[in-house]
Write a structure and sequence with these properties.
By secondary structure, the chain is an alpha/beta fold. It is built from 17 helices and 17 strands. The protein has 3 domains: about 130 residues, 3-Layer(aba) Sandwich (Rossmann fold), CATH 3.40.50; about 250 residues, Alpha-Beta Barrel (TIM Barrel), CATH 3.20.20.60; about 35 residues, no CATH class. α13 crosses α14. The longest helix is centred in the C-terminal third of the chain and has 20 residues. The structure holds sulfopyruvate and magnesium ion. Magnesium ion binds next to α9. It comes from Candidatus Campylobacter infans.
């Protein structure tokens, strides 16, 4: 006869006295019915469906819970909804703090009540929520402390396996990264925010007044990334242009890893690189498949962590070489060890990108696909994700937006010979000061 079950679901990323209180109550109920306390531990995927990834991965959180004597068993809860596990376990009691009677979790609670009623198997117990302590507060404290280099580096792989699509945005300075880090919207009860940053060669060069031709050296770009990392906690993907000479690329890979960058993208071009959106208006040479595969292999051999990703970017559609060439290259690059594929296009319509994704996915369901929808900007990230893409990069928008405002304001001051007229186009000094942590 299996033991009766008292069920508690939790994320358990930051265990606090509120959790222990709930677990003690669960244990009391379990003793009364000679049953066991089973914790349904939310998987990374379940947590990422409604908020940011937990600091610790599933296995780490499970290890912590399994050493708590109040708990008899830990099983995965793969969705925010309790329904699957309740049907599986038919618990005698489900325990949750009464704080979920209002707010974002109301629907989840109702679903627990409905499922228990339908099965006629158990009762929902809702102890009074422990005041004065919350995971949200602890999260804010943890964020203020920062994130370690390794934890940040490994975030990208964890995010890719936990959710689709991921939204990345170009940041070229600490300030633009702070704006990107804090932007969010609420869509259908879910918080949608950027999952990470793109260090763009175009905007990194442009913000230094230089052309996008690999003229800004790695060290200078790493300085900017270090400044971004000082004030943020999200992962970063680095635009490594062509990767340069193979012998230099291997050093670059290790420098990026030491900094905590999660991935670099190298494009299959040789010679003097020009920005892809210029297409065939300028002379651009695509690399030989074999030579580019050698570069990917050398990079993979050079990396020191297992989490760092080298993503191969295919320029066939940019250079009008055709779909077949793009697909041949994609499969060859994956065979050479690429951890992901970026396919680029400069068309207004997303059709060729969608065709590529469908044809690639017909043979390869796992390798992450990266898309940069600068010219085909009517398709949503959600739609690209549903088509099979994993990472959507908004590659240059923050810098372009800043330019418009700065030009207008500089012009306006000269025209009026004073600044009163353009004041409304500027953020107030007070707001600027409050944006930056540690100012006040
Ligand atoms: C960049 O942002 O620098 C890129 C993307 O490489 S693109 O400009 O579209 O080539
Ligand atoms: Mg670039």
């Amino acid at each position: 006869m299996p033991r009766k079950i008292v069920y508690v679901a939790m994320s358990a990323d930051l265990i606090h006295p509120g959790h222990i209180n709930i677990l003690k109550i669960a244990k009391d109920y379990a003793s009364k019915i000679k049953g066991e306390v089973v914790v349904g531990l939310l998987t990374d995927k379940a947590i990422a469906s409604y908020k940011r990834l937990p600091y610790m991965n599933y296995e780490q959180r499970k290890a912590v819970l399994e050493s708590i004597a109040l708990i008899d068993r830990v099983i995965p809860q793969d969705t925010l909804s309790y329904e699957g596990n309740i049907r599986l376990l038919k618990p005698a009691f489900v325990i949750h703090g009464d704080d979920w009677k209002s707010g974002a979790q109301v629907k989840t609670r109702q679903n627990v009540l409905d499922t228990l009623a339908e099965l006629g198997c158990g009762e929902l117990i809702e102890p009074h929520y422990t005041q004065g302590i919350s995971s949200t507060q602890l999260n804010e404290n943890a964020r203020a402390i920062g994130i370690s280099t390794n934890a940040r580096l490994s975030l990208l792989r964890r995010l890719i396996s936990a959710k689709t699509p991921l939204r990345f945005i170009e940041t070229h300075s600490a300030l633009s990264a702070l704006i990107a880090q804090n932007a969010f919207v609420n869509r259908n009860g879910t918080k949608v925010e950027f999952d990470g940053f793109w260090s763009s060669s175009l905007t990194d060069s442009t913000s230094r007044g230089k052309p996008d031709i690999e003229a800004v050296e790695l060290q200078s770009r790493l300085n900017t990334i270090n400044e971004i990392f000082e004030v943020t906690s999200k992962p970063l993907i680095y635009d490594a242009d062509t990767g340069g000479k193979i012998e230099h690329f291997t050093f670059a890979v290790r420098s990026l890893e030491r900094t905590g960058v999660s991935a670099c993208i190298i494009e299959d071009k040789t010679g003097l690189k020009k920005n892809s959106l210029l297409g065939n208006e300028v002379a651009q040479t695509q690399d030989d498949i074999k030579d580019f595969c050698d570069k990917i292999r050398a990079g993979k051999e050079a990396q020191i962590t297992s989490d760092f990703m080298i993503i191969a970017r295919i320029e066939s559609l940019i250079l009008d070489k055709g779909m077949e060439d793009a697909l041949n290259r994609a499969f060859a690059y994956v065979d050479a060890g690429a951890d992901g594929i970026m396919i680029h296009s400069r068309h207004k319509s997303p059709n060729e990108i969608l065709e590529f994704i469908a044809k690639f996915r017909a043979k390869n369901s796992l390798t992450p696909i990266v898309i940069v929808p600068t010219s085909f900007n009517e398709i949503t990230a959600q739609e690209l994700g549903e088509a099979g893409a994993n990472i959507i990069i908004y590659a240059n928008h923050l810098l372009r937006a800043g330019f418009v405002a700065m030009k207008e304001v500089a012009q306006g001051i000269l025209e009026n010979d004073k600044s009163a007229e353009i004041e409304s186009k500027c953020m107030s000094v007070k707001e600027i000061l409050s944006l930056i942590p540690g100012t006040i």
